[in-house]
Amino acid sequence: MLVDDSPIWIRLLHAGGQMRVEPATVAPTDRSALHTPVDGERFRSALSCFASGVAVVTSVDGAGPCGATTTALCSVSDRPPSLLVCLNSSSRTLSGITETGGFVINVLRADREGLGRHFAGKAPDKFADVTWRRSGRFGAPVLAGDVVAHAECAVRQITALADHYIVVGLVLDAWTGGESPLLYYRREFGQFGQFGVSGDPGPADHGGVR
Ligand SMILES: Cc1cc2nc3c(=O)[nH]c(=O)nc-3n(C[C@H](O)[C@H](O)[C@H](O)COP(=O)(O)O)c2cc1C
To answer: What distance in angstroms lies between residue 25's CA and the mean position of ligand 1's atoms?
Structure first.
């Protein structure tokens, strides 16, 4: 496992039901190879094959609502319900999240590619022509008519890594609809088609932050 820029090999040990972290006893002999990353374009090309949904992560800062299109989003744990999103250090939305301590993830519907592109821009007021309402706890924008799901989160941890920050949030409230999601794959927006997926993960839940 790599920690920061210095490769540190660790092992995880189960001891009395607890997980313990210790230096590994066996590590690669050629440690210099662990400092040489792959070429950036090869990395981006490989990772572009990892298909994902598209979420607009929103928060508020002193100037008002803010939001950014993201794909670097994933579930971390369900006990407690937690997720993470990685944001560039230049992101205004990241500033809003650090100011308020909260954020909302808005998972876009298949026909909302326009919003995905819009929130990838740097317009000063991205919410001027968008229908939204404030979330219950932090007042972060909820794009209720444009999403297949949304969730409101409280920041639990923010970790710097290179030019990004990994934001871990405890999920306070969540809502799921019945539409099909917008996808991102090989640097293009798209939709489920070949699977004939309706996107319906089960009964809709209109409680919570909607
Ligand atoms: C499909 C797509 C996915 C993106 N995913 C991320 C992401 O996961 N993290 C990130 O920091 N920026 C991501 N971006 C770029 C941000 O949306 C962009 O930098 C945006 O302008 C940030 O807005 P802000 O500065 O108002 O927060 C993505 C852009 C696109 C088009």
So the answer is: 40
Q: Which domains does the chain have, with CATH numbers?
A: 2-36 (no CATH), 43-191 (2.30.110.10)
Single-letter amino acid, residue 74: C
Closest CA to 131 of 119, 122, 141, 121: 141
Q: What is the pLDDT of residues 27-63, one digit of tens each?
A: 666 767 778 899 999 999 999 999 999 999 999 999 9
User: 112-126: per-residue pLDDT in tens?
Assistant: 999 999 999 999 999
87 touches ligand 1 (CB under 6 Å): yes
- 60 contacts 70 by C-beta, under 8 angstroms: no
CB of 121 shorter than 6 A to ligand 1: yes
